[in-house]
Amino acid sequence: MDTFTINKTEAQWKEQLTEEQYYVIRKKGTDRPYTGKYDQHWEEGTYECAACGNELFTSNTKFDAGCGWPSFYEALDKTKIVEKPDYSHGMKRIEILCARCGGHLGHVFDDGPSDKGGLRYCVNSTSLQFKNKSK
Description:
Blueprint: H1 10-16, H2 19-26, E1 45-49, E2 55-58, E3 62-63, E4 71-72, E5 81-86, E6 93-98, E7 104-109, E8 120-123, E9 128-132
Antiparallel strand pairs: 1-2, 1-9, 3-4, 4-8, 5-6, 6-7, 7-8
């Protein structure tokens, strides 16, 4: 079992998060493609975990993968994300979780830009909040 810095009961998470955030972050749901507020979001700043504020990605590593979800070729710091095998829905994928609170972020794939290491962190907008660089 994983040990995360922030451990709350499901009741506490339900109280803190919106219904949509709870579904995606705690129940491993997903945003519908092309509907998330950060899919085509190009301001400069930092993307954080919506559940705990852990800084995860920067706008410098965001790219348009054309998949309908925010995509990044690199995490801000690999220690801020936990990778776990995911065999749900008849697929073999690598799930990514916030290392601080264990919240579901999305998945990482090996079809990202080859000149940037080849990874694509495919993240649910619902799992993120954005901190503008200018603020």
